[in-house]
Design brief:
358 residues; mainly alpha; 2 domains; 37% helix
Length: 358
């Protein structure tokens, strides 16, 4: 009888397809569940959607793993400090002390930046000084930083491998294979991209759901007025729901610098004293303010721009009234500007159960 090779190939294909289906039904084939970001209307109406790395798509399993890692002190050298230790949900994932304190009780020289709307950081430079490219790489550094978690990734990986839950969670999120620091930071980045804040009073005002007070309206006018607040160049406008340009500026904090900021990273003296403009969202929860937490109240911040500017060789040209000490706001304009800025805060964000350690 003549052998028909075509029929053999066909039989093999059907047989192995059936086996794969069997395995899939029994949970042996790992297929993480897609979990695309839910883009708020206020964002989709005004700015581009975020670009998610092709090698780290958002998944239910990856987000769950990232959240567990974010709140787990296992990452630190002495098992006492998690990412959330310096990025508290109730403070819009920022820190309370002026200088964030690591596992050895030693304070650093900066205040932890708040964490929200990170998926829209289009230039992908992170930290106050922009020293790390991509959210995935950002998560690598705190573990090994001697004034933060003061650990090694080798120790962390060993702990994860010996943990009763993590091996299965990593397999569910990333498939078979060893646990790696790259997988861990990909998961943390997935969780951090879900930290979206878009439900402030001002957001609802833009959507026609509420009204501003006369004080908040005047505060917005002060914010947008080049002769008064002149805030919008660095912090955006109602058409920019991020409320930051995500760029680096010397905003007149000092005449000389003990912390070079971006200049330390680039080596360019023209960048000395430049730091990332933080978002103005959630200011009600993120005190103290500035990269070094020097201002404990929003009034202090407003007073700085009004009459406290310090000149230096790298002062940003946008600080146009530095020779006058600042924009010289009236007491009424200061109060109204503060009222507007507080309208950008989002209580539902800090109370979102998806972002809590439960």
């Amino acid at each position: 009888m003549k052998f028909n090779f075509t029929y053999l190939l066909l039989f093999g294909f059907v047989f192995f397809s059936a086996c794969e289906k069997d395995d899939e039904d029994n949970g042996y084939v790992n297929r993480p569940t897609p979990a695309p970001l839910e883009i708020p209307q206020i964002f989709s109406d005004n700015i581009l959607d975020p670009v998610i790395p092709i090698d780290n798509p958002q998944t239910v399993e990856g987000i769950a793993l990232g959240k567990k890692l974010f709140f787990d002190p296992l990452l630190s050298s002495n098992n006492t400090q998690s990412c959330a230790h310096c990025h508290l949900p109730q403070n819009a994932f920022s820190d309370i002390p002026r200088f964030s304190i690591g596992v050895d009780g030693v304070p650093g020289n900066r205040n932890s930046m708040p964490l929200f709307n990170l998926a829209w950081n289009y230039d992908e430079n992170f930290f106050w000084d922009g020293r790390v490219f991509s959210l995935e790489h950002q998560a690598l550094e705190p573990v090994i930083n001697p004034v933060e978690m003061h650990n090694t990734w080798e120790v962390v990986i060993q702990r994860l491998q010996q943990h009763p839950e993590y091996p299965n969670m990593f397999t569910s999120a990333f498939g078979n294979g060893p646990i790696t620091k790259e997988k861990a930071t990909k998961a943390i980045a997935q969780f951090e991209r879900t930290l979206i804040s878009a439900n402030s009073k001002f957001d609802r005002y833009l959507l026609g759901l509420t009204n501003l007070t006369p004080e908040e309206e005047n505060g917005l006018n002060v914010f947008m007025d080049e002769e008064r607040g002149d805030c919008f160049h660095c912090h955006g406008n109602p058409n920019n729901p991020l409320w930051t340009d995500n760029a680096f500026h010397n905003n007149g904090l000092d005449a000389t610098f003990s912390d070079l900021g971006l200049g330390e990273v680039t080596g360019d003296p023209a960048d000395n004293g430049k730091f990332r403009s933080p978002s103005l969202r959630n200011l009600a929860f993120t005190a103290p303010y500035m990269h070094d937490g020097r201002f404990f109240t929003l009034d202090d911040v407003i007073n700085h721009y009004s009459e406290g500017l310090q000149d230096s060789p790298t002062i940003d040209p946008l600080m146009k009234k530095v020779n006058e000490g600042g924009v010289q706001l009236s007491d009424q304009d200061k109060a109204d500007l503060k009222a507007f800025l507080l309208s950008l805060s989002d209580p539902s964000f800090i109370n979102n159960p998806d972002f809590q350690n439960q």
